[in-house]
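Run: sequence + coenzyme A -> complex structure.
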Amino acid sequence: MDTRAAEFGANRDAMLEKLAEIDAEHAKAVAGGGEKYVERHRKRGKLLARERIELLLDQDSPFLELSPLAAWGTDYRVGASLVTGIGVVEGVECLISASDPTVKGGASNPWTTKKSFRAADIAAQNRLPTINLVESGGADLPTQKEIFIPGGRIFRDITRASAAGCPTVALVFGNSTAGGAYLPGMSDYVVMVKERAKVFLGGPPLVKMATGEESDDESLGGAEMHARTSGLADYLAVDEADAIRLGRNIIKRLNWTKQGPTPKPDYDEPLYDAEDLLGIVPTDLKVPFDPREVIARVVDGSDFDEFKPLYGSSLVTGWASIHGYPVGVLANAQGVLFGEESQKAAQFIQLANQIDTPLVFLHNTTGYMVGKEYEQSGIIKHGAMMINAVSNSKVPHLSVLMGASYGAGHYGMCGRAYDPRFLFAWPSAKSAVMGPAQLAGVLSIVARAAAESRGQEYNEEHDKAMRAMVEGQIEAESMPMFLSGMLYDDGIIDPRDTRTVLGLSLSAIHNGPVKGAEGFGVFRM
Ligand code: COA
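>> structure
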């Protein structure tokens, strides 16, 4: 790749512009409920959600934040009043979830709930202990109909994690009322902060209404009461920092061991500069790019052993390692998946399962090839082979959306519905059932044919306006911020961070066993 070419510079500028836009959205999530509420929170002598996390983590260790743009494009605050991610506590990778009390008192809206579900799935699939930093007004009452019934899963997941041998810890910094009381209620270990934690099924006004009893916060649900009388609190913390210290101590005593194979201790950094990743993806996704340029900047020592390089060349497959963890890589090259690519993918996925090796999918596909020749040569069967392989594969999958991820190609490349352990998007990614122009064109052809069959004249002016409107809508809905807001990915990452993010993900994944499938569905031949 020529990093001095004008094209490279233009791609890089466009990528930097998109990164700046995404940074601005991340900043909104970090700002929580805004200055007024942050100020009030601090005046109460409390730490912000992110500060609590920072103190909890081992010094200078990274935090892989998940779904930071959840709720983007909705009526709710970006970030969905919750911070989730994976961080290292006493040397143990933990799933950390912290409510943000500066946003509507930390109450859970429908997006908060979805974000919690995703975090719980990640903890369960990767066998991670969970630490909940609790200070929340419980259900967002105006949207209760959307969260009350599905939201029960949060408490179920905590106890199922415990049953599966993944310890759960609740550090309670403030309010944890009503349903929220089951956050500590279901956890294996509970720490409460003196004079701050309030954990009750019903507060004083509700109790008064229900039974006529006069009470106060402290006797109903204070930390001292729970530590000395009810026994719900296992540890009484004198302040927030003490709660964090106690939380770290709990993790230290878990005697945690990872079940996956350990990475190779010494590996080389890539030979090519990660900076170059900014200039690889063309601004027009119709222009293909060579994913080997990406692989060379992500894998150890830029050492990639390509499998079947001469066959099905619009999908690159091969073996490499990332931070010492062996991986198989599948990366789209020319955008379209043909029969050969699909069969190659199906074979490669089986090989990875045979040797218990995780797979990394690098997306840039417009989907499976259409047309008479391809239908007659069995493109559906071949695509189905690939989708069968990816669906029944049991080794961990990681997906990175670099560019296009359209149509069934998104499925075959292990899109969200195919349960990759983690799915991250570059700012250049776009995902939809098909490209905006194609989708608008299809609608136009269908509408034209329908008008003809009714014997009506087709209104060309109307068609033009419809196409423009649909194209605009699909373009907006295909953008990574929109998809991230919907929690269809685990976050938008800077392309330069790809190696680090994949390394952190692989390390988290190896908390659980890494074992390939022993059987697949029936492959259509
Ligand atoms: N649903 C929707 N909005 C909520 C909420 C909830 N459960 N809890 C708090 N909010 C809103 C408040 O209305 C307020 O909104 P505003 O700033 O736009 O006026 C904002 O969040 C901050 O609340 P406030 O009471 O000023 O904050 P606080 O830090 O002093 O107290 C709580 C926080 C959580 C202790 C308190 O708001 C509370 O008791 N909420 C209700 C808790 C409850 O009973 N939940 C039922 C759970 S099933």
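>> summary
The first helix runs from residue 6 to 30. The longest strand covers residues 397-406.
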